[in-house]
Specification:
It contains twelve helices and twelve strands. It is of the alpha/beta class. The protein has three domains: about 80 residues, Arc Repressor Mutant, subunit A; about 100 residues, D-Maltodextrin-Binding Protein, domain 2 (3-Layer(aba) Sandwich), CATH 3.40.190.10; about 90 residues, Periplasmic binding protein-like II (D-Maltodextrin-Binding Protein, domain 2, 3-Layer(aba) Sandwich), CATH 3.40.190.10. Strand 1 and strand 2 form a beta hairpin. It is globular and about 65 Å long.
């Protein structure tokens, strides 16, 4: 395939089509008419020799090729964009500050090594971390936050970001828990006492929505704002703590906790992790330097 024969603007249409899974929404995001986006979809299908999106009931689903493209396209577009944006930046002489919203897990467990490196590489760079909550999307828009590492269902159109990965959920219990030697059933799970984390990201809603779809609920006996508080309490109680799997596997050994799968009947959507920022900061050299360092550090963890 000769690149010179392809309209590269189609890649932007492909991005919005794969992200929204809707011709109408993709057209709105790219400020095109719906017929124009439909034509772009037709050209993309011809180029890739694949339908890319197909209707299933009332929804559009990505084909396997579409899913693969959605995994590969965003980082490729970011790399292409970096070629067109001035890249000269001297971190050693930079004086400035950034406000970053993220979780206590990220700041406590993932970032200390990077922050030590930044102290050497950019000694006048001041970073202020804040505990993430979904309402901070507006703070990104208003300039009160510069960057966020978070869980999101979908990135808004005016927010830029890179996906860090996806994850499922697992349960944590201590070795003395009555359920330690058996597979968790749905009846076990709903009958047990639970502990939840109320801050630093949406770690409760997905579980409770999945239970509500089954017309069930769990006994949330205790909520705390921080992940390490929840782990320390779980280690000394008979509560069940449900967390994203990669966090559970990373931290369970530090608290002598056992990781167990969720009941098979409890179907939860994957958790999506992103590093996000407002579009006005996309071309700022200092911001790009910081977000690329953060992205590389968090991606290496995954």
């Amino acid at each position: 395939m000769e690149l010179s024969r392809i309209n590269l603007n189609l890649l932007i249409s492909l991005y919005h089509l794969l992200r929204t899974r809707s011709v109408t929404s993709a057209a709105q995001a790219q400020h095109l008419t719906q017929p124009a986006m439909s034509r772009n979809l037709g050209q993309l299908r011809e180029i890739f020799k694949d339908r890319l999106m197909v209707r299933v009931g009332n929804d559009m689903h990505l084909t396997p090729r579409g899913e693969l493209l959605w995994q590969e396209l965003p980082p490729m577009l970011n790399q292409l964009e970096s070629l067109l944006v001035p890249s000269h930046f001297e971190p050693a002489g930079y004086v400035g500050e950034f406000n970053i919203a993220t979780t206590d897990f990220i700041t406590h467990d993932l970032l200390p090594d990077l922050l030590a490196e930044l102290q050497q590489d950019a000694p006048q760079l001041r970073l202020h971390f804040h505990l993430w909550h979904p309402g901070m999307i507006d703070e990104l828009r208003q300039g009160r936050m510069d960057l966020a590492g978070c869980i999101l269902d979908q990135i808004p159109d005016d927010i830029y970001g890179k996906q860090l990965g996806t994850d499922g959920y697992s349960c944590l219990i201590n070795p003395e828990h009555p359920l330690i030697h058996q597979t968790l059933t749905l009846a076990d799970y709903t009958a047990a006492d639970h502990i939840g984390i109320s801050a630093g990201g949406d770690k409760i809603r997905a579980v409770d929505e999945a239970l509500a779809n089954l017309k069930l609920s769990r006994k949330m006996m205790l909520t705390v704002p921080f992940i390490h508080s929840a782990l320390a309490i779980t280690a000394r109680s008979h509560h069940i703590l449900t967390l994203p799997t990669h966090i559970a596997l990373e931290l369970a050994p530090h608290y002598q906790l056992k990781v167990k799968p969720l009941p098979g009947e409890l179907q939860l959507p994957d958790t999506n992790y992103y590093l996000i920022w407002h579009q006005r900061l996309q071309n700022d050299p200092a911001h790009r330097y910081l977000r690329e360092r953060l992205y590389s550090s968090l991606l290496n963890y995954r």
